[in-house]
Structures are given as structure tokens and as C-alpha cells.
């Protein structure tokens, strides 16, 4: 069996150094953010500091902390690990409380530092396992320091069930009745097979990242990286912490969704919910129904003539001009009274009741349009690659020289993503002077994007001559995006935007 | 032979050899999937005086790593006992029977019966759990997987 120290040291290179350690304390976080703002003047207002960790680094990061606690409190690595996990990695709190009252903490966590080695696997004379009721002197038995000794086979069965079926890792306890003694990694390793132990370590890494507010797994499929970022949940109304994983996926650290700059997480959540609930229904209502001019019940005309009688208030009106049916006189079933005053009034009421619906659809349609374009991104990208190859053969340009197309395609994709979320942002924005600036920025970006998009679609034989124009346009589009994001990010940080909903 | 069957065989032969505590009797143990036991409560508790109750144990392949599913059933002269932690459909809310909370593989059929017996013996309330009617009408889950909140250590 390996010693406690060995199973963790898997050749990793001990990162998580000083600057990542600074995230640990809530009190330090403000200072941290300001520091970096002054240290790096090139950082844009909408950018946040973050760091990408591989699974190796995640593991060695934990190991470094175990060793630190182990040294400070004079415990072995496995016990230090259990303590840290119990305290959700808040080292200061752990040390302070442990110094005050080690006994009660040992009990709560399920460790017994004074009993070191008499645990583990041994054979006991005249042993009967209370769980499988088997006996025999050759039977291997196991116990944690609490002394609840059962056969290894039962423990293996138990641990495998906990790890593989229940997904437990950090809080596996002794099998004894009401016993809270905890399994540390070396105990688990002593009992289970390699496959289960690998699974156990993976689960531990997962709980480590999940337990720490400053870490989040990259949500891209099959990605093994975790991102470290100092932005806290409670800051999410002031920043939109967008991070870029080493796998190339750009996402929001706050909520884990794909990049949604400039829209804060809470608005994104509201917007997605609303779209899920409303958009299809709202579209249909808009296309197929009108409201009763008196009681504003929504009515679908599913056949028959234009003489409508509201089911609810019994008001009779004309479907075409919306005026009262009584004014139609003898010209029934042939509405030619569109200019009549009462009809105009009725249509006014109708228009007002439709305004909020139309407003939503205005933003939704533009949002959906950019989303649709974003879905074509992949296609666009393969097309670009093809164009780049074609261009090389027709114009004699080198691979390096045609990179501007690739660059343009990437900028285009990114800007569509941003534009999409500006519409969700705008939907919740209350109208005032500041919104004009925002809308101007949005308009400029959108126009520039469409122009670049148009250039991009040009046939290959023209593309070579458009190189300079395209590079200029790409740079311009990029700068418009930065401008818009800078403005919105500063506005959020300064609490300048007024929204028509509560940010929760 | 599965883990559960081996263990249940041993439990069964122990019961046949040593018997069960007073008030607990084995009714049916023909296989290793489901056993029936009767329990009686002694003493002066008027709620259960002179009555017998029938417990049904259902064992999975992972018994005793996982707890058995234990419920009261009705039958000839057998009712579901009145208790603030026993629903009228026989489901028992007891932390001992929850895989994630009170269960330990050290427990066995006998010890579960003894716990339930004492749970009845100490009860003075002639009532069903709160929300009994709704629970009984709607519940489709196996009792093992219901997330009870074990908030009342007194009864």
C-alpha cells in the first residue's frame, strides 16, 4: 500500500501560487480587483482576470493546501484534506476554529488524529463480520480509527456502492451504526480496486471545484479545464465575467452560459425564461388575434363573417375596422367604414394593448436573428477555410496572407454574439438619455457588422482586391464592439443603467 | 449467490436458532426478496393494546449496504398503526430506513423490527403525519427514495 503522501503526488507541478491564493479571502477581493486595474492599464472595462487550470493543476493545487494545513496543524495529509473539505477550503476559518476547539471539530469531521496506524487491513483471530456474518481466521478485516471492524469484502462492497452508484466522495463515513468516522483517500485506496479509486479521485476534484466560488469547470463538452476567477456571485450585477478557456470556448464565469456580454447574468436568465415561455405564443397572438375594443379579451377569428360578438362582454364589432357593428347600418358584411371616428378609436385601443407585445417582439426578432446567424457560424467557418484555400490558388497569396479572412470570420461571429445580447439588454433598459448612447453604439456596430458580412459573402475572385477594405472593416467592427462593451461595462460598474426590472 | 442472499440466509438461520425478541414473529420468509413479520407492542399504551401489525421487508441486491424497504401492510385483523410518522398507506418515516441518513449495514431485520416496535411503544399521539391524505393520494415513489425530513427525534 502506498503512503498518504504518495497517492496525491502524480507528477504535477504545484501551481496555485501566490496570486491565485489571494482569492481565498472575501475581504481581499476588492483590493484584488483594484490592484489589477492599476497594474494592467491595457485591460478593458469589460474584461476580468482569470486563469485556466488543467486537471493536473487542480489536483496539485489541492495537494499544496493539504500540505500547508498538515504542517500548520500537525495532522497527516488525509486528515488535513477532510478538514479542508469540511470547511469548504476556507483555511483561515479552519485554522482559527481548530486552534480554539480541536476536539469538537475532529468529531464533526470524523477524524481521530491521536490514533494513527492500528487501522487498515489485518487478520483477526476468531473474527465474525457483523455485516455478511461470515467468519474465518484467514479473513481480511478493515477498520477506521473508531474500531468498527468488518471484513474487507463488505467494506469494498460498501465503498464501491457509495462511489460508483451514489457519486459520494468527500463525505463517506464508517459503516458502523451512527458512526461518523470519515474515510480519507488512503483508506479508500486501501480497500477499493483501481478503477473505483480513479473514479473517487475524479469525484473529489469535482467537489473541489464545485465547493470553491472562485473555480468553475469549463462547460464545453469533453473539456477538462477549470477556470479560476475572482468575481463573486454578489458582484454579478456590476460585472459580466466573461472568460476564455484554453479549449477555445468563451463563456460567462458567473452563470456558465455561453458568452453573453454585455448583458448581466440576471437579465440573461430573465430573458431566456421569457423567450421560452412567450416568444412562440406572442408571435402567434400577434399574427392571428385582435382584442375586443371594449373588454380587451384576445379573440381569434377562426372562420365566419366579420360580425364579431365578444363571448365575454357581448360587444358586437366589425373584425375589419374594429368599429361597433351598429354603425355599419345596412352595409352588413361589407366593411367600407375604415375612416369612421369610432373605428379609429377602437383601433387606437387595440394598438395600445398591442404595444408591449410588439415591443417584446421587436427585441426578440432581432435577438433571434443574430442567434440564427450565430448558428450558421460553423458553416461560415468551413466556408472561410475553403475560400482561403481557393484564394491561395487563384491569387497566389500565401497562407499567412489570407489569414485576414479567418480573422474577419472570427470577429464577425463574436460581434453577432454580442449584438444578440444587446437586444436582451435593451429590452430591459429604461428609456433615458443614456440609452440613446447605447442604442447609437448598437446601431453602429450592427451596421458595421452587416457591411463586413456583405464583403465576406463576395465571390472568391473579388476577395483578393478587397483585402485592404476588409481588414479595415474588420478592425473597425472590432473597435465598435469594444466601444459598446466598454460603455455598458462601465455603466454596470457605476450603476448608471436603469432597468425596468429588478436585478436579482 | 448474491451478497444479499448470503446475508439473509445467515439472518434466517440465526432467527431459527435463537428466536426473535418478545412481540416480534416471523410470518413468511420463503424467499430472499420479501419477508413478512408481525409485531406487537407491550405495556399499557392504549393506542396499540392487544393489536398486531404486519411489516413487509423488501430486499434489494445490495442489502445490507442499502437498507431494505420496510412498510406496514394490512391483512386479516391487521391495520396500519396510528402514529405521527406512519402514513395511512403503511409508509414509515424513520431515519434508520434512509440510505443516506440513518441506515448502517450493521442493522438487520431484527434490529429494524425492534426500532419500529419501540417507536410505537413510546408514542402517545393518536394521529397521522401532517399532509397524510395528500401524500397517500400522490406518492408514487418507493419509500426508500422519499426525502423525508427527520425533524422530530422525540417520537
UniProtKB/TrEMBL annotation, chain A:
InterPro entries: Ariadne, ARIH1-like_UBL, E3_UB_ligase_RBR, IBR_dom, TRIAD_supradom, Znf_C3HC4_RING-type, Znf_RING, Znf_RING/FYVE/PHD. Its EC number is 2.3.2.31. PROSITE patterns: TRIAD, ZF_RING_1, ZF_RING_2. Keywords: Metal-binding, Repeat, Transferase, Ubl conjugation pathway, Zinc, Zinc-finger. It comes from the Eukaryota. SUPFAM superfamilies: RING/U-box. Residues 1-22 are annotated as: Disordered. GO terms for biological process: protein ubiquitination. It catalyses: [E2 ubiquitin-conjugating enzyme]-S-ubiquitinyl-L-cysteine + [acceptor protein]-L-lysine = [E2 ubiquitin-conjugating enzyme]-L-cysteine + [acceptor protein]-N(6)-ubiquitinyl-L-lysine. One of its GO terms (molecular function) is ubiquitin protein ligase activity. Residues 125-339, 129-178, 292-335 form the RING-type domain. It holds the Pfam family UBA_ARI1. The keyword Repeat applies. This is RBR-type E3 ubiquitin transferase.
Automatic annotation (TrEMBL), chain B:
It comes from the Eukaryota. InterPro entries: Ub_conjugating_enzyme (IPR050113), UBC (IPR000608), UBQ-conjugating_enzyme/RWD (IPR016135). Residues 3-155 form the UBC core domain. Signal peptide: none annotated. Keywords: Ubl conjugation pathway. It holds the Pfam family UQ_con. PANTHER family: UBIQUITIN-CONJUGATING ENZYME E2 (PTHR24067). This is UBC-like protein.
Amino acid at each position: 500500500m502506498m503512503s498518504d503522501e504518495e497517492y496525491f503526488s502524480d507528477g504535477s507541478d504545484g501551481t496555485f501560487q501566490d496570486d491565485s491564493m489571494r482569492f481565498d479571502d472575501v475581504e481581499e477581493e476588492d483590493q484584488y480587483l483594484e490592484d489589477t486595474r492599476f497594474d494592467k492599464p491595457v485591460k478593458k472595462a469589460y474584461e476580468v482576470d482569470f486563469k485556466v487550470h488543467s486537471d493536473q493543476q487542480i489536483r496539485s493545487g489541492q495537494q499544496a493546501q493539504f500540505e500547508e494545513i498538515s504542517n500548520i496543524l500537525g495532522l497527516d495529509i488525509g486528515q488535513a484534506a477532510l478538514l479542508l473539505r469540511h470547511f469548504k477550503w476556507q483555511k483561515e476559518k479552519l485554522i482559527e476554529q481548530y486552534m480554539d476547539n480541536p476536539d469538537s471539530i475532529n468529531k464533526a469531521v470524523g477524524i481521530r488524529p491521536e490514533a494513527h496506524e492500528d487501522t487498515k487491513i489485518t487478520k483477526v483471530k476468531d473474527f465474525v463480520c457483523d455485516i455478511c456474518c461470515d467468519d474465518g481466521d484467514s479473513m481480511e478485516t478493515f477498520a477506521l480509527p473508531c474500531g468498527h471492524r468488518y471484513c474487507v469484502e463488505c467494506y469494498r462492497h460498501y465503498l464501491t456502492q457509495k462511489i460508483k452508484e451514489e457519486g459520494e466522495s468527500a463525505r463517506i463515513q464508517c459503516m458502523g451504526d451512527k458512526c461518523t468516522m470519515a474515510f480519507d483517500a488512503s483508506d479508500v485506496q486501501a480497500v477499493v480496486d483501481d478503477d473505483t479509486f480513479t473514479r473517487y479521485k475524479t469525484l473529489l476534484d469535482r467537489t473541489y471545484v464545485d465547493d470553491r466560488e472562485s473555480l468553475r469547470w469549463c462547460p464545453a463538452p469533453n473539456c477538462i479545464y477549470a477556470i479560476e476567477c475572482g468575481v463573486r456571485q454578489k458582484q454579478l450585477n456590476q460585472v459580466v465575467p466573461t472568460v476564455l478557456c484554453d479549449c477555445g470556448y468563451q463563456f460567462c464565469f458567473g452563470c456558465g452560459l455561453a458568452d453573453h456580454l454585455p448583458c448581466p447574468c440576471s437579465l440573461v436568465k430573465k430573458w431566456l425564461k421569457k423567450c421560452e415561455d412567450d416568444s412562440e405564443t406572442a408571435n402567434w397572438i400577434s399574427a392571428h388575434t385582435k382584442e375586443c375594443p371594449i373588454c380587451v379579451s384576445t379573440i381569434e377569428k377562426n372562420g365566419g363573417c366579420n360580425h364579431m360578438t365578444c363571448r365575454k362582454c357581448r360587444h358586437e364589432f366589425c373584425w375589419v375596422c374594429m368599429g361597433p357593428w351598429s354603425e355599419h347600418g345596412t352595409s352588413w358584411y361589407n366593411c367600407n367604414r375604415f375612416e369612421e371616428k369610432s373605428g379609429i378609436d377602437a383601433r387606437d385601443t387595440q394598438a395600445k394593448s398591442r404595444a408591449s407585445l410588439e415591443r417584446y417582439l421587436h427585441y426578440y426578432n432581432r435577438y433571434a436573428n443574430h442567434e440564427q446567424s450565430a448558428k450558421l457560424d460553423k458553416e461560415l467557418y468551413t466556408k472561410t477555410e475553403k475560400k482561403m484555400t481557393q484564394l491561395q490558388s487563384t491569387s497566389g497569396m500565401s497562407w499567412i496572407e489570407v489569414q485576414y479572412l479567418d480573422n474577419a470570420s472570427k470577429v464577425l461571429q463574436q460581434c453577432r454574439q454580442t449584438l444578440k445580447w444587446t437586444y436582451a439588454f435593451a429590452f430591459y433598459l429604461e428609456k433615458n438619455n443614456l440609452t440613446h448612447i447605447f442604442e447609437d453604439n448598437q446601431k453602429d456596430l450592427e451596421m458595421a457588422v452587416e457591411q463586413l458580412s456583405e464583403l465576406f459573402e463576395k465571390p472568391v475572385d473579388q476577395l483578393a482586391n478587397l483585402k485592404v477594405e476588409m481588414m479595415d472593416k474588420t478592425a473597425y467592427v472590432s473597435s465598435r464592439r469594444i466601444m459598446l462593451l466598454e460603455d455598458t461595462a462601465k455603466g454596470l460598474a457605476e450603476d448608471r443603467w436603469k432597468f425596468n426590472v429588478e436585478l436579482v | 449467490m448474491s451478497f444479499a442472499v448470503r446475508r439473509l440466509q445467515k439472518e434466517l438461520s440465526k432467527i431459527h436458532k435463537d428466536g426473535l425478541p418478545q412481540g416480534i414473529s416471523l410470518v413468511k420468509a420463503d424467499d430472499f426478496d420479501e419477508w413478512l413479520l408481525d409485531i406487537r407492542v407491550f405495556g399499557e399504551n392504549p393506542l396499540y393494546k392487544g393489536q398486531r401489525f404486519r411489516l413487509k421487508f423488501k430486499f434489494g441486491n445490495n442489502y445490507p449496504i442499502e437498507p431494505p424497504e420496510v412498510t406496514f401492510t394490512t391483512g386479516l385483523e391487521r391495520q396500519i398503526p396510528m402514529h405521527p410518522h406512519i402514513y395511512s398507506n403503511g409508509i414509515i418515516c424513520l431515519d434508520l430506513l434512509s440510505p443516506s441518513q440513518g441506515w448502517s449495514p450493521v442493522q438487520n431485520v431484527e434490529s429494524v423490527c425492534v426500532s419500529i416496535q419501540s417507536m410505537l411503544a413510546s408514542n402517545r399521539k393518536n394521529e397521522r403525519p401532517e399532509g397524510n391524505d395528500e401524500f397517500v393520494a400522490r406518492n408514487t415513489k418507493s419509500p426508500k427514495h422519499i426525502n423525508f425530513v427527520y425533524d422530530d427525534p422525540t417520537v
